Amino acid sequence: MMRQYELVERVRRYNPNTDEALLDRAYVYAMRAHGSQLRASGDPYFSHPLEVAAILTDLKLDDATIVAALLHDTIEDTSATKAEIERLFGHQIATLVEGLTKIKKLDLVSKQAKQAENLRKLLLAIADDVRVLLVKLADRLHNMRTLKWVPPEKRDRVAQETLDIYAPLAARMGMQDMREELEDLSFRQLSPEAYESITTRVSELRQVNGPLVQEIERELKDELARRGIVAEVKGREKRPYSIWGKMERKAIGFEQLSDLYGFRVIVSSVEDCYRALGVVHTKWAIVPGRFKDYISTPKPNDYRSVHTTVVGPRRQRVEMQIRTRDMEEIAEYGIAAHALYKDASGAPGEMLSHESRAYAWLRKTIENLSQGLSPEEFLEHTKLELFHDQVFCFTPKGRLIALPRKATPIDFAYAVHTDVGNTAVGCKINGSIAPLVSELKNGDEVEIITSKAQTPPGAWETIAVTGKARAAVRRATRAAVRAQYAGLGRKIAERAFAKAGKSFSEDAVAKATPRLARAAAEDVFAAVGRGEIKTDDLVRAVYPDWVPPRPEERAAQQANGEGWFELKRGHNLKFKIPEGAKAERLDAIPIRGINGELPVRFAPEGGAVPGDRIVGILTPGEGITIYPIQSPSLQNFEDAPERWLDVRWDVDELSEGRFPARIIVTARNAPGSLAQVASAIGDRGGNIEGLQMRSRSADFHEMVIDIEVFDLRHLNSIMADLKAREVVSQVERVNG
């Protein structure tokens, strides 16, 4: 374990004016506070905050951050309080420790909505003072280095959280070395076989190639020196997770990888960067399409460098990054390289006027995410912002737009302005008309063609890559659906008032909104269209003295074809009224998911599940029956096209609703076969509603099983699991 004087010496190496007394007090206080506490490894608990502080000294951080690292677990795990820490170490350090305590309580791999809310709290905690994030990243790095001491059932959870949240955050803060180590440590835990395979293959390749890295370093350095360029050349193999990611992304095997070696060329000036680039391209053949200039166009995390790939010695592809020493420091330390909290002497001070682009991105992200997104939309947007590499495109006026990899002109349009996205009808890429679904590339100039008559199609949500574009499309779609409901509800209301013998006016409905618990007439009509407000209640709200017809009167009206259909919530289905349908019977059927005196039911003997293509069959007096399109029962209605309704699913992916399906399982007539079948269904989360046993032969019997599943994918996974069971010879689905 590091001694007190050793920690002080580490800080003094980069900050000669460090407050040694402050560091000493924090060291002693934290050691006494944790007392005899032990980590899972058996080491004194105090060794953990000490190692976190040591990691931060490698990043050359200020005294306050080092002290916060020493104290970061005291409020949570000891009897220490924020008030006591503030009294002993000051308000600034106490606030940092409190922020870290809040983050420690967050669960970032729980259910989606809870994870989203906790991620929001995490970002808010670090938005005020980025040093909270720096300490947290160092804390997570040390925990990942000692992951083998964590109980086995928790290791995957911690590793997945690291890969999902902390490694991308380190990347966004420009801390590439920390990001790579976090990714590799997570990868080793989550995919040990893949990790072992890649490290073994890299080791074998290293033996075959011999001292190739040193050879290229020496040859490149000598070539630059001959041209009068003083440079430091550092080579290395790519990290296992980086190799795995490329194999996954490009769907290639290890043998097909061609750039396993990377080199950094460190020079003294920007001019030398481009001179060195010329030397490299003169010496070796370049690989087309692999040149990137992040000096003229820095990444949002302040990363600056020139990248190129050449065919080097022994015909090996070699990736090179050419940068100055200042750029190297930012590439290595990221946001920690910016002296946000140091005065000229290196001592703690107020935030300087300069703010890094990475920290500016963080503030902008918080600002964007405070605009009323749902927890799920927040999570989607934030993860997209964290994960994706970026492409840089330009508007016709030269404005730079940074977008995630694989972004489309749709994403570009929404990045320019939401109104531009909502009215986009086409685009030009580099002056040529192109589809809105085109994948944008670095340097593209994009011009969006708009029309005020346009509204974004719902399908754009599956095409767009950025969270901002997806959220905007969803909002526009919801607005369009609401307008559709409102239009339908207005027609239903007009008809209801006419049947009641009362005059209809929107002004009268607007005055009655308080009685209907709605803010405006449009809200009332939308609620009527969705079936949330009964027409009787609407008429009575406007005309309190009106008495609705008695049930027998309404039955007589319906027998005469006058058809009162009250609407309530029902299955989540969207209905479109086909041409030729009888308006007097169907104009009260909503576009989406409601039933009442027109009940919605699923077809007998098979049902239907989300993922099936479906149709609805209208039976007067009974309602609507939903059939999968492949159901042979639909042949019975071929002569009655007026009864067919276009329907489609509108089921949220996160919905826990279940839907009916029927399967026939042919199994060996052996002890325990029924238990194996039931176990397969239960293990996959299926719910058995009914079961019939039918004998087929002495050796086999059939089970007709009615089950409830979430969707077609869920059903198929159950059937696949059943087919894999040794006692099962055949599984088929029944569709009526």
Task: Summarize the structure in words.
It is a single chain. This protein is of the alpha+beta class and 736 residues long. It is built from 29 helices and 21 strands. The strands form five sheets. Strands 1, 2, 3, 4, 5 and 6 form a six-stranded mixed beta sheet that branches. Strands 13-12-17-15-16-14 form a six-stranded mixed beta sheet. A four-stranded antiparallel beta sheet has the order 19-20-18-21, covered by helices on one side. A hairpin with a 3-residue loop joins β15 and β16. It starts with a helix and ends with a strand. About 8% of the residues have low confidence.
Task: Give a topology summary.
Layout: H1 4-14, H2 20-34, H3 47-58, H4 63-71, H5 74-77, H6 82-89, H7 91-104, H8 112-128, H9 131-145, H10 152-172, H11 176-190, H12 192-209, H13 212-226, E1 232-237, H14 240-250, E2 261-267, H15 270-283, E3 285-286, E4 292-293, E5 306-311, E6 317-324, H16 325-333, H17 357-369, H18 375-387, E7 390-394, E8 400-404, H19 409-416, H20 418-422, E9 424-429, E10 432-434, E11 446-450, H21 460-463, H22 467-500, H23 506-511, H24 521-530, H25 535-542, H26 551-559, E12 567-576, H27 583-586, E13 592-596, E14 600-602, E15 614-619, E16 623-628, E17 644-649, E18 659-668, H28 673-683, E19 687-695, E20 700-709, H29 712-724, E21 728-734
Parallel strand pairs: 2-6, 14-16
Antiparallel strand pairs: 1-2, 3-5, 4-5, 5-6, 7-8, 9-10, 9-11, 12-13, 12-17, 15-16, 15-17, 18-20, 18-21, 19-20
